[in-house]
Structure formats: C-alpha cells, structure tokens
C-alpha cells in the first residue's frame, strides 16, 4: 500500500476503501443467492466468521455500506451472538482506547 499511496493517509484510506468495496461487491452478489439468517441459510458457516471483520474494515475505511443490504442484514444477525461480539475488533485487548466498546 505504501508503494501505491506513499505517506498520504487520505490516499491510503481511499486505496483501502476501494479494494474493500470491490470485495464487498462480490460478497453481496453471492449472498443474495445463498443467505438466509446467515451467509448460507440459517446455520453458521466459516463465511459468517469473516463477515464482521470485513464490515469493521469497511467502516474504518469509510466504505458506503448502504450498497450492501444483504451483508448488513447478515452482519446484524451475527452481532447478536455474544461470541461474535467478544471476537470482534472493538473488544480486543490491543484495540485503541478510543475505539473500544464495552
């Protein structure tokens, strides 16, 4: 990323947001075919474990999440699971103080 953006943080944010958005575009398209309560129907799968981290990064890099209603719906169901909440980026010991959630 430093090669593509140098030390310009705005460029780095835009660069990351662009590629996160590209991945979310593909995920949204696939989830519209497979999602129930979770990514593949109503049972948890490995894909579900990965979605909250992608949504976290999308917010972090200011990706417009309104383009991803299926991802948002699945993620909303996932964050109701206590184990998912405890594993998310906002609840880790190394999360910066200003970003932590209780």
Attribute tags:
102 residues, mainly alpha, Glutathione S-transferase Yfyf (Class Pi), Chain A, domain 2, 60% helix, 0% strand
Tell me what the structure shows.
The chain has helices spanning 2-5, 9-34, 46-60, 69-78, 82-87. The mean pLDDT is 89. It has one domain (7-93): Glutathione S-transferase Yfyf (Class Pi), Chain A, domain 2 (Up-down Bundle). With 102 residues, it is mostly helical.
Short overview:
The chain has 102 residues and is an all-alpha fold. It has helices at residues 2-5, 9-34, 46-60, 69-78, 82-87. The radius of gyration is 15 Å and the shape is flat.
Structural class category: mainly alpha
Sheet-strand content, in percent, reads under 5%
Strand and helix order: HHHHH
Q: What oligomeric arrangement do these chains adopt?
A: single chain
Helical residue percent band:
55-70%
When the domains are counted, the total is 1
Supply Rg: 15 Å
CATH class: Mainly Alpha
- How confident is the prediction overall: mean pLDDT? 89
**Unreliable segments of 5+ consecutive residues:** none
Annotation field: number of helices: 5
Largest sheet: none
From the N-terminal CA to the C-terminal CA, the straight-line distance is: 32 Å
Topology:
Layout lengths: L1 H4 L3 H26 L11 H15 L8 H10 L3 H6 L15
Organism: Panagrellus redivivus (Microworm)
GO molecular function, one term: glutathione transferase activity
Protein name: GST C-terminal domain-containing protein
């Amino acid at each position: 990323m430093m090669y593509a953006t140098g030390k310009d943080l705005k460029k780095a944010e835009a660069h990351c947001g662009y590629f996160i958005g590209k991945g979310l575009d593909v995920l949204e398209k696939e989830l519209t075919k497979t999602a129930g309560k979770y990514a593949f129907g109503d049972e948890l799968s490995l894909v579900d474990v990965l979605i909250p981290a992608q949504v976290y990064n999308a917010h972090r890099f200011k990706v417009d999440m309104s383009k991803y209603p299926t991802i948002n719906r699945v993620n909303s169901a996932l964050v109701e699971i206590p184990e998912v909440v405890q594993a998310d980026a906002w609840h880790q010991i190394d999360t910066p103080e200003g970003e932590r959630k209780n």
